[in-house]
Each structure stands twice: as C-alpha cells, then as structure tokens.
C-alpha cells in the first residue's frame, strides 16, 4: 500500500494538525494553501521607530513565525505578497534618502522576502513614492517575480497589447501532492493590480513615464491570456481595497468588481489596512465578511504592517481539463491579540532568519532616527487633532507656510496671502489606540519629525479663490457626523472618514456647523448640495470674499487630486517643491532652534445649546485633555478596542 502524507503523519504520531482539506483529500484531490502578506510598509522588525521601542503588534519577522506551522498544516503551500512593502516607516526613508541602493545592494524588505521564500509579489501604490529608478533598483534583488498588469509604459490598442512596466502576470509551474501521495503538475497564474490613482499621488515621479489602466479593464484583457497559456487557477494580487460593487472606470477600491471578472479564482486584497474575513466589511454588497468571499470567490485582506497572515485553503480536484476548485476556506491569522483591558498578547516570536536578513539596516535606522535636529518647549500630540486645533498639525502648517513664503518671493504670486493645509496622520482609527503622535518637550529627533509627518510627500502650492477655499473646508468637514440639536452624547466622528483627509487650513478662521449634513461624501462627491457647514470664514478679521485669491501650501498627494478636494487639482499648482514635507519641517526646526508649538484655535464648532457629542481617542490623551484649546473636553471612560471616550458639550 502506498504511504500517503496523511497516513504517514498519523502513523508516526506527529503533533501537526493537518487542515481538513489535506487530511481528507482523495487520490484525485489535493490541498493547496495560498498565504498572503500585504501592506508590510517596511515593518520587518517588531519595532515602532516613532516610539523607538519594540512592539508585539507589527513586523514581518512575527508574521514569518506563523509560516512554519501554516506550511506544516497544509498538503501544499505558496507564499505571496500583495504590495506596499518599500515605504511606510523610517527604515524605508533611511534606505531611500540616506543609504541608497548601490549596485549589489538589496533592500532589507527584499532580503526578508528572499529569506521567507516569497514566490510572487505585486506593487502597491507606495512602491512609487521614491521614484522609478529606486523602485527598479530595489526590485533587482527580488528572488521572485513581481507583477503588475495595469501600470503601462506604452499603451496598446487593448490592454493585452500594452507594454507594462513589469510583467502583467506570471504562471508558476509547481508540483502538487494529492491525497494518495502522488505528485502532479499544476499551473498557478498570479496577476497584480494597483490603484490607477498613483498618477495623481506620485505625479512628480511618474508623469510622462507611465500610464495606468483601469483595474477591471486590465483584468478582463489579461486573464483570458493566462487561461489560454494553461493556468489551472488564477490568483489576483489586488492592491486595491474593498469598496462599491458597481464598477466605475478608474476606481481606487476595485476588489469587488474585480472578483466578478470571469476566470479569476482567488482574490487577495489590501491597500485599506483592514481584515477579511471579519467584521470590517459586514454589509458590503457582494461580500460575505464572515466566510471571506467576494462574489462567492475566496478572498482575504491580511491587515497591515504584518499584523496578520492571510490564508486561502483550496481543495482541488483533478479532471481531464486540469484542476478545479472543489472547496475553499479563508482566514486572516493574527500575530497578536488585544485583551479587553487593552493588553497585547503576542501569538508568536520573531523568525530569526528574517531578523538576520534586515539586522544591519535596522541598526542603521536606529542611529538615523535618533539624530536631534532641535528642541520643542511644549508637547506635540495628536490625541485631539480631530476635535480641536492641534499643536502637532500646527507645527506642520507653520513649516509649510514658512517654506512657501520663501518660494513665492520673486514670483508673480509674491504678495498673495499664504495659507497652509495640514491633516493629522496618526489619529487612532484603523491604526488602533496607540496610533497617535506623542512627542515630549525637549530634543526633537528625526524620528519625531517622521512621527509628525508619516509620508515622504513633497511640498506643493496651489492658487485658489475664496469660494473654492470654502469648498475645500467643506470637504474636510465631512469628518463629522450630523448632530441633531438637543442630542445627548451623539457620536461625533464618522468612522469611515480617514484622518489624513481632515485638512485644517491655517491663516484663516472658521467654524463648523454640525447641525448641517456633510456637503461631501467620503469619496469627495457632493452629497448634500444645499448644506453648508463652514460658517464665519474670515481672513485678517474680515469675511473671505468669493473672488479673493490665496496660495495654499500643501503636499503632492493633495495637490494632485488625492482625496478629491475642490481646488486641489494639478492645473491649480503654482509651485512644485523638490523637498519633502518632512525635510521642510526639519529645516524649520533647525532654523528656529527651539519651537514653541501652540494651537491658535483658528477653527471651532458652532455652539449648540443643550447638545453633547462623544468621541474616542487613545488613552494617552488623558495627560493633555485639560490643555486642549477652544473646547471643553470631559472624560467619559474606557471605550471598545482599547480607546478612551470623551464628551464635548457644544
């Protein structure tokens, strides 16, 4: 009798619990486990470079520790990555801006992927943040194919005739062992996609060099080609979020209509930093959040920064026409658990091989982030940045205004009033109750500046009029839910609104009327044409006139259309800086020597007698609640997910 893997493990008393598909596979069946990492953002080590301390909640080294057991549970397995790996923390910036990528050097994330045996990957939008030469240099060390079907260097008549920046897909020829222990060939097609919005978000790097195709359009052209080349199953590495079910050309979050494309068998998603299966996507059309299905097809989103390992288990049956899927199960397996008391319990220890792969870069990054550049005589924190004028946002605005004032000197725009738009990046939300800026008075190091401004954006300035300025602020005011006068403890913050779209514009003063509905929806479309939340908008103590002209300092993401803000469009750009916003903040602090960040209270809520609202923030905010400017904040108590709740009496 042939000794199968199943009977061997049973007879030897091995303690490995095989997945049911592996345990019961018949002679013509095989278990294939597909594993996903996504949105690693250079988090190789379990280390928070902004806080300069170890952490149990992040790190590819921790995710990697799951892989041994996960592989052992499976009859056959393949490891894939879903993009956004080159940028996202100070290690990424250190490699891009300080060390560089010289001939023969490999990127620490690529070293980690190679150590893990990643078998295919795709690009995320953040892979383009440092420019195409850096991207190509980093990918040169990859030990696996990296695919992307909708980033194009030359457009063809149809997408399958495009010249793509990278191969649009790869077909992995593998041997798969069936339930009787027999090995058979299988052809696994892997195709990748990235949001077309990279042309907006990284316009200064990409304009004139690449174009993008709509994700669904590219899939409909390339998947039949993969099938014609003999792909038994097709896996979509979709670095795009889960959004509306109806397809719209050029949509950013296209995972749901992508799953409807004929021939795609499995969807790995990312980009949105959430988890599927799980409650994050309950109620979404065509999505089974509990089972991990989109249009009935197995689908997984594996969190971010290494928080989860995504698993799709397939029971395959072999017939005359090759392999087909007879069953599927999906899972997002976490590296840690958060208790009701906010405690963190690590589920794994770090994989030594991954730590070794990035150890030198880690030590160099620690030295990089610890360099002092100046001092602050007041704390910088973002615990209340979504409910009141905030010092961590204020210093970013001041630095941007200082820089653009110099850049406008001697130009046709010299003398126009300069405003500055900045948003809180670390404001809890999907990042969790510890995801806030918190810089103590004293030395300010590069790690602190990176904490204030997470992304390597570059400075831009746009020219807009007063009417457009008001609309820009209306878009930002969508962060808040509508509040009925007289309500008690009504929820204040819209959980679907991203904090990086809450632009505070310094240089003007204004108030926000919460009794009005949001004029713009989450995607930036006009939702309530008659609504106007922004009132008492003034400049220099006088009401802003619709025709009044302003220069607004911002970043390349916003100025190129990121977030869909009125007036923040390429045709309104009057200055494109070579400097990153972070570098500008560093230079501002260096010039000042000591900064005294203090919120000036230029915006507030319209009073509503007899009305109160509540919001959640990190528990660390308890040290600063009494110092918040322009609003009285009352503690309520602990909230779900490790947050702390406060009340505002409007």
| Terminus-to-terminus distance | 78 Å
pLDDT < 50 runs, ≥5 residues: 1-15
- Give the second-level CATH assignment, the architecture of the largest domain: 4-Layer Sandwich
Quick one: CATH superfamily of the largest domain?
A: Metallo-dependent phosphatases
Structural class: alpha/beta
Tell me the overall shape.
Answer: globular
Q: Please give the domain count.
A: 2
Rg over C-alpha atoms, rounded to the nearest angstrom: 26 Å
Kindly estimate the percentage of residues that lie in beta strands according to DSSP: 25-35%
InterPro entries: 5'-Nucleotdase_C, 5'-Nucleotdase_C_sf, 5_nucleotidase/apyrase, Calcineurin-like_PHP, CpdB_N, Metallo-depent_PP-like, TAT_signal
Keywords: Hydrolase, Metal-binding, Nucleotide-binding, Signal
Organism: Mangrovicoccus algicola
Family: Belongs to the 5'-nucleotidase family.
Can you give keywords for this protein?
23% helix, disordered N terminus, alpha/beta, TAT_signal, 8-stranded mixed sheet, nucleotide binding, 6-stranded mixed sheet, 5'-nucleotidase,  domain 2, 650 residues, globular, 2 domains, Purple Acid Phosphatase, chain A, domain 2
Structure write-up:
This protein starts with a helix and ends with a strand. It has 2 domains: 5-363, Purple Acid Phosphatase, chain A, domain 2; 372-649, 5'-nucleotidase,  domain 2 (Alpha-Beta Complex). Helix 4 (90-99) packs across helix 11. It is globular. The chain has 650 residues and is of the alpha/beta class. 53% of the residues are buried. The strands form 10 sheets. Strands 9, 10, 12, 13, 14, 15, 16 and 17 form an 8-stranded mixed sheet that branches. A 6-stranded mixed sheet has the order 6-5-4-1-18-19. A 5-stranded mixed sheet has the order 29-24-33-27-34. Mean pLDDT is 92; it is low at 1-15. The chain has 16 helices and 39 strands.
């Amino acid at each position: 009798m042939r000794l199968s893997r199943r009977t061997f493990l049973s007879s030897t008393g091995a303690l490995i619990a095989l997945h049911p598909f592996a345990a019961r596979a018949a002679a013509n069946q095989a278990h294939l486990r597909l594993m996903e990492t996504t949105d690693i953002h250079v988090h190789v080590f379990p280390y928070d470079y902004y806080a300069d301390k170890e952490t149990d909640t992040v790190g590819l080294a921790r995710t990697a520790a799951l892989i041994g057991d996960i592989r052992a549970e499976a009859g056959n397995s393949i490891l894939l990555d879903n993009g956004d790996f080159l940028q996202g923390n100070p290690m990424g910036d250190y490699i891009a801006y300080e060390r560089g990528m010289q001939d023969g050097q490999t990127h620490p994330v690529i070293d980690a992927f190679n150590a893990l045996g990643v078998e295919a990957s795709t690009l995320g939008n953040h892979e383009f943040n440092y420019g195409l030469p850096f991207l190509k240099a980093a990918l040169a060390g990859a030990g696996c194919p990296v695919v992307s079907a909708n980033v194009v260097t030359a457009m063809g008549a149809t997408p399958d005739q495009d010249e793509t920046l990278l191969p649009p897909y790869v077909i992995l020829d593998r041997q798969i062992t069936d339930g009787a222990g027999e090995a058979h060939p299988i052809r696994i097609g892997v195709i990748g996609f990235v949001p077309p919005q990279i042309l907006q978000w990284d316009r200064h790097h990409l304009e004139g060099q690449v174009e993008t195709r709509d994700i669904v359009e590219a899939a409909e052209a390339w998947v039949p080609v993969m099938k014609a080349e003999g792909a038994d199953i097709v896996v979509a590495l979709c670095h795009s979020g889960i959004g509306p079910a109806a397809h719209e050309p050029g949509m950013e979050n296209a995972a749901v209509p992508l799953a409807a494309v004929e021939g795609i068998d499995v969807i790995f998603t990312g980009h949105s930093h959430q988890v599927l299966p799980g409650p994050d996507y309950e109620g979404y059309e065509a999505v089974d959040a509990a089972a991990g299905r989109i249009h009935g097809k197995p689908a997984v989103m594996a969190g971010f920064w290494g928080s989860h390992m995504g698993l799709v288990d397939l029971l395959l049956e072999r017939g005359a026409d090759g392999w087909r899927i007879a069953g599927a199960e999906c899972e997002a397996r976490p590296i840690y658990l958060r208790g009701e008391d906010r405690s963190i319990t690590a589920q794994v220890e770090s994989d030594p091989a991954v730590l070794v792969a990035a150890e030198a870069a880690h030590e160099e990054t620690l030295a990089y982030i610890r360099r002092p550049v100046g001092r602050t005589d007041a704390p910088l924190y973002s615990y209340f940045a979504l409910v009141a004028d905030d010092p961590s946002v204020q210093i970013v605005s001041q630095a941007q205004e200082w820089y653009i004032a110099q850049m406008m000197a001697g130009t046709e725009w010299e003398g126009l009033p300069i405003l500055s738009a900045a948003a809180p990046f670390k404001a809890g939300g999907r990042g969790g109750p510890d995801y806030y800026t918190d810089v103590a008075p004293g030395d300010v190091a590069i790690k602190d500046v990176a904490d204030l401004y997470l992304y390597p954006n570059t400075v831009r300035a746009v020219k807009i009029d007063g009417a457009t300025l008001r609309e820009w602020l209306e878009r930002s005011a969508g962060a808040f839910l509508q509040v009925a006068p007289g309500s008690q403890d009504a929820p204040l913050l819209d959980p679907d609104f991203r904090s990086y779209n809450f632009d505070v514009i310094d240089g003007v003063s204004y108030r926000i009327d919460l009794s009005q509905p949001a004029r713009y929806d989450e995607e930036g479309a006009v939702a309530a044409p008659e609504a106007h939340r922004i009132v008492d908008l003034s400049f220099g103590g006088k009401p802003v006139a619709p025709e009044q002209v302003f220069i607004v300092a911002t970043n390349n993401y916003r100025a190129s259309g990121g977030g869909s803000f009125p007036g923040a469009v390429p045709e309104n750009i009057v200055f494109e800086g070579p400097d990153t916003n972070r570098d500008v903040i560093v230079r501002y602090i260096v010039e000042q020597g000591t900064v005294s960040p203090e919120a000036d209270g230029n915006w507030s809520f319209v009073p509503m007698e007899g009305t109160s609202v509540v919001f959640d923030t990190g528990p660390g905010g308890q040290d600063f609640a009494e110092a918040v400017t322009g609003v009285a904040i009352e503690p309520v108590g602990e909230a779900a997910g490790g947050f702390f709740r406060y009340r505002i009496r409007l």
